[in-house]
Amino acid sequence: MSETNKNTWTISELANELNITTRTIRYYEEVGLVEPQYQRGQRVYGGRERARLKLILRGKRLGFSLAEIKEMIDLYDEDPTEKEQLKRAIAYGERRLREIDEMIKELYIIHEEISEYHQEFLNRLMVLEAKERPVG
Predict the structure, then answer these.
(1) In whole angstroms, how far apart are CA 46 and each of 11, 34, 88, 91, 111?
(2) 90: nearest Cα among 68, 105, 112
(3) Which residue range is the domain that position 50 belongs to?
(4) Cys-Cys crosslink for 8: which of 3, 12, 44, 109, Cβ 3.0 to 4.6 Å?
(5) Residue 59 falls within a domain, yes or no?
(6) What is the CATH number of the domain that holds 4?
(7) Of 26, 30, 32, which is closest to residue 11 (Cα–Cα)?
């Protein structure tokens, strides 16, 4: 944390804490996801922006687009009761779960196909090795 104000962080401090680059934070600024304050010409971020960055990173990890994340975060500012934000998060979450279920099905099919080829190749190899062994 900044020594001058324990409620603010520099861009470097947040980048280090969150294991992201300062460039990433600047990009999130450009697209309107976070908004720094300026103290003596230096970017500083308060608790709100730090929390928003954590939400952005969680959303990205869960597979949401930046547009979806921005929409969900911005809804909180529009409706402090969180009802609309929760409704949107539920809808996006349900869609993401359907996508993940489909990916799991596809991975299972690929797994089965590779397993079949693996067994077929092992059998063929055993036949070839058996032909090479001397009889007797």
Answers:
(1) 11, 10, 26, 30, 47
(2) 68
(3) 1-63
(4) 44
(5) yes
(6) 1.10.1660.10
(7) 26
The structure tokens listed for 117 are 């080829």
E-only strand ranges, the chain: 9-10, 37-39, 42-45
In degrees and rounded to multiples of 5, residue 39 shows phi and psi of: -125, 120
For residue 104 the two structure tokens come to 């799991």
In a domain, 8, yes or no: yes
Q: Is 71 part of a structural domain of the chain?
A: no
For residues 64 and 88, the answer to whether their CB atoms sit within 8 Å is: no
Q: Is 117 exposed, middle or buried (0-12, 13-18, 19+ CB in 10 A)?
A: exposed
If one counts the domains in the chain, the total is 1
State the Cα–Cα distance between residues 100 and 103, nearest whole angstrom. 5
54 lies in some domain: yes
CA 110/CA 118 separation, integer angstroms: 12
pTM for the whole thing? 0.75
